[in-house]
Structures are given as structure tokens and as C-alpha cells.
Amino acid sequence: MSNDNPAQRVRQVFERIGAERMAGLPLLNEALSVEVVGFLEWRGMHLGVLVTPWCVNLMALPHRDGTWQPPDEGVWRTERFPGMELQLLGGEEPELGRYAFRSLLSPVTGYDDPREVRAVAREVLKQLLRPPAPESEVDAPDAAAGDADGRQVSRRQLLGGA
Fold this sequence. Notes:
Number of strands: 6
Number of domains: 1
Number of helices: 3
């Protein structure tokens, strides 16, 4: 992890958002707290998953080298990853600057154990950065991917597709 890795800043900003903007809302999953999973450097961005009591988001923030910049706030842009193309939405927070995100779970219902949510986050990153499977395997369930009940889910289902 490099010195400019934003994981700690992301966690702090979203802890503040939780305390100021989200406090008391009925959609909060009290079993979860704000944490980050991943935040590895990949092609000019820091890529990770933000877990909060109200959502789980894939997040991409620019690396200090400036080779990748997120879309403007409120603007969707397709990003190509080894495992798939994925649309990310531009966001901005004063303490973070611009970033891109994709909602994975919102609200975060059906998860009582933070370890399960962290496992989903790690699996999303794994699927996203894995080279594509041959065309005949794209919709086949991935043996490593399962939902909270242990059911097999395809890569497409894992990231919110049909």
C-alpha cells in the first residue's frame, strides 16, 4: 500500500457522513460499520470497496500520478476492467475530491455478519480484476462466488446484472 492510498481518508469521510447525514435513518444495518476493503493501485486509480451500514460501493479514486481521473459528479462513465466493463458514477466529497463509484448493495439488508459483507467485497474485486472467461463460461456460475445463503451466483449477478 503506497503512502497516498486513500483507504483511511475514505473510511474517515464516510464515518463522518454516517454520523452527520445518515444517523437515525431506518435503512441502516446496525450490524455493520464503515470500513474499506481492498484499495489497491490499478492503472492510475485506487480501487476498493466501501462498506457502510447503508450501502456497499465499489470505489475508484485517482492515484497521485494523475493518469486516471474520475468522471464529474453525477456523470456515468464506462470503465474497462480485466473482468468486465462497468459503469461508474462520479461523486465528490470535499475531503476526498472527485471519485467514481458503483453501488453493489443498497440498502445492505440480509447481512448480519460483517465478515460476509467483506467476503462479498473481496469477491467483487477478484471478479473485476480477473481476466475474462471464454465466451461459453461468461454466464456459468463461478464456483468461488456465492451469496449469503451459499447459493452460487454468476459474475453478472454479483455486480447487479440479470
